[in-house]
Amino acid sequence: MPSALLAGHFGPSAASEAATLGAFRRALPGWAPVLASSDPDATRAAHGCRTVDARRPAAVVRAAAGTDASVLAGWSIGAGDGTRPGLWTAVALVAAAKLRGRPTALLGISARGGRSAWERRLSRRLLGGADLVVLRDELSARHLEAAGVEGPFRIGADPAWLDIQDGGAAGGKRPRTDGRERDNGGTAAVRPRRVVVAIEARACPADLVALLGEALDGLATDGVEIALQPWHAAAVDWRDHGLVAELAGRVGTPVPVLAPLSNLGAGDASITAAGAVVALGSHALIAAAAAGVPAVAVACEPAIADLARRLDQPLVAADASAGEVRAAIAAALDHEPALPNAVEGQIATAEEGFRLLRVLLSEGRSDEVTELSGLPLRRGPKR
Questions:
Q1: pLDDT in tens, 165-194
Q2: Does residue 305 share a domain with residue 156?
Q3: Which residues are CB-contacts of 200 (< 8 A; sequence separation ≥ 6)?
């Protein structure tokens, strides 16, 4: 069985990583994944696959040279922080794979703006060396254009969407909703005034913490129940738990702290029992959409802002005032969740990205060559 290095941001306890791996296994059942993980031993035990330590760039590059293909999935360019490959490591990974004649793909990635000249140069080298590039959002394409990266760019969706269509790794059907929930008599049920705040410290600017804390305290004073949910287990990313403790201390009433989400698509009780979700990262927004719960997205990164628009969910700027954040969260309690056709559209777009990947890995010999419907293309800067 051929093997593929799968790098991005993998660890044993995060629903995001499990969903991306689940999507890979679903889309490429004939391939054995080798995960670049921040905790390779625990990831191997949890998922039963080969691993390499993502914190050791040389080991990741060797794995790229030793596997049959390399895929960077669900990754943000320039977001290296010890749990995911840095930009230089990603460039070296692609170069090592190409040196051995192995195909390389960047699938469902995003890019931030405002980076240094050195980072822009590395971005051009990375995208220029990969055989397939599928971005998650339009804004990332604009950032790459500003960095002088040649297009065209395919605009796709996060690979994790593919894992939620049958309820994700934990099984069970994804809830289907046409808007407000209904009670047994068919009348619109009142949603609970309970807000779950999904905390991803890596996506949260330092100056947002005080504003978010003030907004949550105001909502709690108004009788809204607040619950905080770290996105990662403490062993994977302790910063989430530090931020949870800081936010809890800023709210004048006791705030329950929930366990990290175990699965994006299985309708975890912590999400389905909420009246609304506050999402600091795009995967929390995916989990809310899969559960049929409205969400307000805090625009901390390009991917979440674009996804909120695709799902018609409220969006608040990361530099908004505490009053604006509070009003946006309160409004989300009365907002409709993402419609099923919007969710299905994201799943279909993610599948198209994997179809392109399968065609690449088959060297164009796949029967799916004639079935490609294509992804939207955005032209890069002219040279």
A1: 655 443 333 343 444 444 445 444 567 899
A2: no
A3: 231, 232, 240, 280, 281, 284
